């Protein structure tokens, strides 16, 4: 059963669950910059934040996330949106053009992950904090709102 499927008990996997799974994946298998996955022969390569979210959703590496089935793709895009919302609020990266105009209104999780000053600990913490923020906004006493 993929992480994104509903279990027989009716428990629904939330974006926060997927973000925590991505953080756990990075803790266990390593973090990477520049591409979704580090070039390696292992089935569990080091991954960037987006690659780890993809693995949490699909249960395996995916070369391009448009190859995911519709339900898994929806889960991936939702988890990525939650992560971007968190980065926008708590770790914004602003890119301005030569005239001083904002190029991107949202923080790119790709450029944020690939910042040369970024660390694995920062990425893992951001994924976990984004999950906590989603729970704070969407749950009521442990139950989904």
From TrEMBL:
Organism: Micromonospora nigra
InterPro entries, sorted: DUF6197 (IPR045677)
Protein name: Uncharacterized protein
Listed Pfam families: DUF6197 (PF19698)
């Amino acid at each position: 059963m993929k992480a994104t499927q509903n279990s027989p008990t009716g428990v629904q996997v939330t974006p926060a669950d997927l973000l925590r799974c991505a953080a756990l994946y990075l803790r266990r298998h390593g973090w990477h910059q520049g591409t979704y996955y580090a070039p390696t022969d292992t089935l569990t390569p080091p991954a960037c934040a987006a690659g780890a979210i993809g693995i949490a959703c699909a249960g395996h590496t995916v070369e391009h996330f448009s190859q995911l089935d519709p339900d898994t793709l929806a889960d991936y895009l939702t988890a990525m949106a939650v992560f971007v919302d968190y980065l926008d609020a708590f770790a914004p990266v602003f890119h301005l053009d030569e005239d001083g105009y904002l190029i991107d209104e949202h923080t790119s999780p790709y450029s944020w992950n690939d910042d040369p000053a970024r660390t694995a600990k920062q990425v893992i913490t951001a994924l976990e904090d984004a999950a906590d923020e989603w729970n704070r906004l969407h749950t009521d006493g442990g139950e989904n709102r």
